Amino acid sequence: MSQFFGDMTPLTFNPDADGPAFRHYNPEEVVLGKKMKDHLRFAVAYWHSFAWPGGDPFGGQTFDRPWFGETMEGARLKAEVAFEMFQILGAPYFCFHDADIRPEGADFAESRRNFEEIIDIFGEKMSQTGVGLLWGTANLFSHRRFMSGAATNPDPDVFAWSAATVKTCLDATHKLGGENYVLWGGREGYETLLNTDMGAELDHMGRFLSMVVDYKHKIGFKGTILIEPKPQEPTKHQYDYDVATVYSNLQRFGLEKEVKLNIEQGHAILAGHSFEHELALARELGVLGSIDMNRNDYQSGWDTDQFPNNVPEVALAYYEILKAGGFETGGTNFDSKLRRQSLDPSDLIEAHAGAMDVCARGLKAAAKMLEDDALEAERRARYAGWETPEAQAMLGSDLESITERVLAEGINPEPRSGRQEKLENIVNRYV
């Protein structure tokens, strides 16, 4: 044991507790016929929880962790502390990038050796604790070699390095029994069109993704390949802007049946959408895979990655997830980080525990709204006219025939209220 968290013991469900505990998240509570832990499928993000130093765009490191530094000794200690935290939280899953878990080597071969050593440690600890891997991914954005992208880089050597890195990470995810593999294009975009061949970059991105899908099938990886949309920051424009843009690209590349989406609350907001909008669209398109749960500060114009604390927002998100039938291979990954002034180890536990409670409250509210048919009854009533034989026949008709019907029947429609305020009041009764 590392003793990083002192004598802190695993958290329990105790609504009346004074200290750290779950007050709403009861893993064994049954909601809509399934245990809450199986609905939510919580995961801890390795990068924000253990690799992030506490910086922001205007200031550097504030955290002082004993494993910081580019050494294998530190990487081993970090793994020890991480699994201690997973057990304290009772988190069933975690997620990682390659760069989170190992020091950078002098070349690709050394970096891969470092990575594979830690993957072996992960395998041992997963066997000991029962913690699973929700997904793995490659960091193809932090190092200076990726300043112009990875799959979309104008330098073919960077494309090659990126392909080799993804292969290594997908192999590791497969070895650990990961349930998904995520591709996040942190710098897959452009800063200026003056030096960008957009057509070539989009073609290369599509070919790269096709190679990943081909390799998944070659090695027998049964998990889901996921793409995470993000609109901007750091690039001026990113090719994976939002759900609609990603789906359009998947169709262009012929991969819409092979790839699903990992959708983040903060990224949805940066794209000018709500979280529930992105989830609803992905559900309708059949590509809803997994979520990164966090929030932004609405007074800031950048991705602050804060832990969720808004129950109504979270309830509407899980409402869309439940309407989609719930998660299959996906889950709720806390892509959230402490505030740079939250220095203590206990802050990590408190932040995750509070977020898990918020998600539990949101899930239960969403489930009750569905059970009571509170919103869906109103929605069905609004579209009821489309259930008539005449309306259905019109969809298979033509403009001339429809015009004749309008004239013959004297159709002269009057607008009907959308009842938005009533619906908002209904939601507020549940949250």
Kindly describe this structure.
With 431 residues, the chain is α/β, with parallel strands linked by helices. The chain has 16 helices and twelve strands. The chain has two domains: 30-371, TIM Barrel (Alpha-Beta Barrel); 384-430, no CATH class. The protein has helices at 36-40, 46-51, 72-89, 98-101, 108-129, 156-175, 198-219, 243-253, 265-270, 275-285, 311-323, 345-371, 376-382, 389-395, 399-409, 420-430; strands at residues 30-31, 34-35, 42-45, 93-97, 132-137, 180-183, 189-190, 224-227, 237-238, 259-264, 288-292, 332-334. The strands form three sheets. Strands 3-4-5-6-8-10-11-12 form an eight-stranded parallel barrel, surrounded by five helices. Strands 1-2 form a two-stranded antiparallel ribbon. The model has no long low-confidence stretch (mean pLDDT 97). GO terms for molecular function: magnesium ion binding; xylose isomerase activity. Mg(2+) 2 binds at residues 264, 267, 303, 305.
Q: What's the topology here?
A:
Blueprint: E1 30-31, E2 34-35, H1 36-40, E3 42-45, H2 46-51, H3 72-89, E4 93-97, H4 98-101, H5 108-129, E5 132-137, H6 156-175, E6 180-183, E7 189-190, H7 198-219, E8 224-227, E9 237-238, H8 243-253, E10 259-264, H9 265-270, H10 275-285, E11 288-292, H11 311-323, E12 332-334, H12 345-371, H13 376-382, H14 389-395, H15 399-409, H16 420-430
Parallel strand pairs: 3-4, 3-12, 4-5, 5-6, 6-8, 8-10, 10-11, 11-12
Antiparallel strand pairs: 1-2, 7-9
Helix pairs in contact: 3-5, 5-6, 6-7, 7-8, 10-11, 11-12
